[in-house]
Input
Amino acid sequence: MLDFLLTTDAIMALLTLTFLEIILGIDNIVFISIAANKLQENQRNKATNIGLILAMLQRIILLFFVSFLVGLSKPFFTIKLSWINAEISWQALILFVGGLFLIYKSTTEIREKVEDPNYDEDNAKSKVIKSLSNAIVQIVIIDFIFSIDSILTAVGMTNGLHNNHNYTLVLMIIAVMISIAIMIGFANPIRKFIDAHPSIQILGLAFLILIGFMLITEAAHLSHTKLFNQTVGAIPKGYLYFAIAFSLFVEFLNFKTVKKNLKK
Output
């Protein structure tokens, strides 16, 4: 186990996944902050911390469930047509549907954030919260919705890293725990940074489109799909790491350029 966690692939996956989990958790932090601010001042920190801890537990439970489904690699249905051949398993089906969901969710989120940046915040402010328990229930419900793309991203980043699904499951759990711990300790600074640099969140959502496409190709590869007698191959995760690192480097240069121009 330790040997796997110290490999280059595992470390890169952990760092990338932790970053994406934090970016994906920004909307969650916004909602939790709004929900907590409707309570009395002495209950706000408690609601925030409890909400984030329950979010972590909920995501870990979902990781176990999704990882179990992804582990079902035995084909249960075969497609044989003149232009396509495929052996469908639950593993391939979950990855394919998950990839489509990530692409849909990401494009929808990007459109909403470009056209109406305050959509999520206005929606959260419209909800009535009367007590601490009421706030926690609403936080858990909304986190379940937010955590779906987070879980699918974790599966996409770690699938195929090791033959033992338990090893990759541990890696996903570690990433979720680190990201939640960072959000508990630095929720407000992270939110302020994202508010000041909204392009970071758009960039994170764009990464999800890449991951969604990778999940679809991975599903096709695992189901031995042939399109017009051409076998679909898996996309090496190193390409994804390079794309994310390069994009972040360009964004960093953009920050420095804007900051320099402001000083002038």
